[in-house]
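Let's practice the habit of predicting before peeking. Look at the sequence and jot down your guess about where helices and strands might fall. Then scroll down.
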Amino acid sequence: MESTYPGLSQDEILRLLSTVLGVCREGVSITSPEGNIEWVNPAFTAITGYDAGEVVGRNPRVLKSDRHDDAFYADMWRAISETGHWSGEIWNRRKSGEAYPEWLAITAVRDGSGALQRYVAVFHDLTDIKRDKDLIHQQTYHDALTDLPNRFLFQDRLGVALRNAAKSGGLLGVICLDLDRFRAVNDSLGHRAGDLLLAEVSRRLTPLMRQADTLSRYGGDTFYMLLTGLREPEDAAHVAGRILTSLAAPLEILGQELRISASVGIAISPNDGTDPGQLMRNAEIAMYTSKRSGPSGYAFFTEDLGDRVLRGLQLENDLRKALARDEFRVHYQPRVDLLTGSIQGMEALVRWHRSDGSVVSPAEFIPLAEETGLIVPLGEIVLEQACRQARIWADEGHAHLKLAVNLSARQLEQPGLVDTVMAILERTGLPPTSLELEVTESLFLTGFEQAHSRLSALTVMGITVALDDFGTGYSSLSYLKRLPITTLKIDKSFIGGLPSDQEDAAIVSSVVSIAKNLGLEVVAEGVETEEQLEFLKALDCGGGFQGYLFSKPVPARDFARLLARETPGTEAGKP
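Done guessing? Here is the structure:
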């Protein structure tokens, strides 16, 4: 037979083909028309583990993995019979017993007359490719820290579950879980401790999930759970309860015993949404509602709750614009001497006057400013306005007035707080001794040492510190002794029942006594009647009072009129 390759003899071609087949990475086997193996190359041995002597003369069924049914092989041989070729992915088994995937191509070899002579099988081991593909899939769809499904896989599963629920008419739930005070762990013990804590949380939550459910670390310290096949919404509440119980047990991280809690929000489809994004958003809204109610609790989403959140988002947007538009003004409430009725000072209170003329209640925008962190720039605006105005009044002959300005816990967290306050005093020309900063008892719960350090630095400059709303929060006398405080302000909730309410009377009397023993002044807030005033006079509440009996908070021009109308001997409460 004439050679297809001029210049090469048949022997040379066979030697070259033998060499090529000997070095190629694909496994090759040649079988007889009856299906018995006649020849294999070295790659065959490397992939399958079988030497040539172990398989020659045997049927390739020796490699069968039992992962494919009879129909699979029937379709394969039908294709070879009809077309002379088949290729596809197949699982075979190595000599060691390990099943592995390969890409196999089988070709029927016929002579010139069309008679079948041999079958040639060429295959490539897909194990490494599969492993790499699985690794990429794992890294793409799972959280590296906890190995839980990440946001991409969770959203995909939620979408599938919602489509199935729409067809079956069933309920499914989404739980949003956020750890309480996780940031404090990172700040105090470091990010390594935070990572270990998150891993422990995932270990505790995983056993609570059924096989059909999905637990996902969505990001940071937020976890989402997909609950399918719910009979009623209460089923999700039972899961939430088990979650909170599981997290309540103490755990040890880097030698420190920690107790953690979480806030949980629940949304149920279809009532709370049929779209993945909407359902997750509503679960998050419910979670924040739970968080505001206190640690370690859960809340269901409701339509009214969603409306309130939307209003809150709109208000937040308006609040940011208002800061840029300078829509905030400071009002001043006099602090009055109990005996003489003269004005000793004033508390600066912010008011939001929209450009359209409407006024937003502080009870509505102050908590929002705290939550969003906007209280920091807002607080600086109030402090500068108030200090500038107090300096004007001092230049007009009222240098004795003490200006009180509220300082939030969020402001106390700012590293540059002391520099900011001193810079404002320098710009406005107000002496530090004319300024009093009011803090609340919430600082006892977060960052006490940090707050103590910054308040102490301010008092060294001559600024005084008052503890506002005393008695409504933590009320730790040991902390009270440690803080650089000069004044206690009794909350108006205790003043309102005076003098007839015995409990209020006892509380106010005790606070005044404690303050005197500690060398502190006492200011009573919310004084509205002469009877309340007389009760305070009898206690010798030397720090004075604030309240509608004398004046509500008023703009600077109206406060100036109060100062102008003061005359010696004016009776308290009757300017």
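How did you do? Residues 121 and 314 are 68 Å apart (CA to CA).
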